[in-house]
Amino acid sequence: MAQKRTPRDSHRGSGPSQRQLRVGELIRRTLSEVLARGDIHDPDLSRMSITVAEVSTSPDLHVATAYVMPLGGAGQEEALAALRRNRHELRRLVASGLSLKFAPELRFTLDETFDRMDETRRLFARDDVRRDLESDEEDDRDDDRQD
């Protein structure tokens, strides 16, 4: 028998449920389509090309956080301001494309994935880190030879 999940379980590091992941992906696709078609009648928003990288939802699916980035990374604050200003209309348009009981509240934040990847690449390029990685690879090869 499956254990019943409580709201407190979501804070224990178990990760999002399959339903949260599915709903987040549906919202991401729908939001991307709405922004690409230019369904919002805001001149600031319609002149921007915005990428929706990911949407994460709260365990109760009442809040959806969209991680966005304007194309090329320029005008980030303007893009966030335009999205936040039009969040009610975006919520209505996203809800019409989904078959959920209610429309989740949309929140927008900048996607920092690319910045973190650049920082990771920079760290791996450092001499001391590269030296440590090479010594670990040599140790692994020695272990494989002994087996």
UniProtKB/TrEMBL annotation:
Monomer. Binds 30S ribosomal subunits, but not 50S ribosomal subunits or 70S ribosomes. Coiled coil: none annotated. One of its GO terms (molecular function) is ribosomal small subunit binding. PROSITE patterns: RBFA. One of its GO terms (biological process) is maturation of SSU-rRNA. One of its GO terms (cellular component) is cytosol. Residues 134-147 have a biased composition (Acidic residues). Residues 1-12 have a biased composition (Basic and acidic residues). The gene is rbfA. It comes from Haematobacter massiliensis. Keywords: Cytoplasm, Ribosome biogenesis. The keyword Amino-acid biosynthesis does not apply. Pfam families: RBFA. Belongs to the RbfA family. One of several proteins that assist in the late maturation steps of the functional core of the 30S ribosomal subunit. Associates with free 30S ribosomal subunits (but not with 30S subunits that are part of 70S ribosomes or polysomes). Required for efficient processing of 16S rRNA. May interact with the 5'-terminal helix region of 16S rRNA. InterPro entries: KH_dom-like_a/b, RbfA, RbfA_dom_sf, Ribosome-bd_factorA_CS. This is Ribosome-binding factor A. Gene3D superfamilies: 3.30.300.20. Residues 1-20, 128-147 are annotated as: Disordered. It is found in: Cytoplasm. The keyword Cytoplasm applies. It comes from the Bacteria.
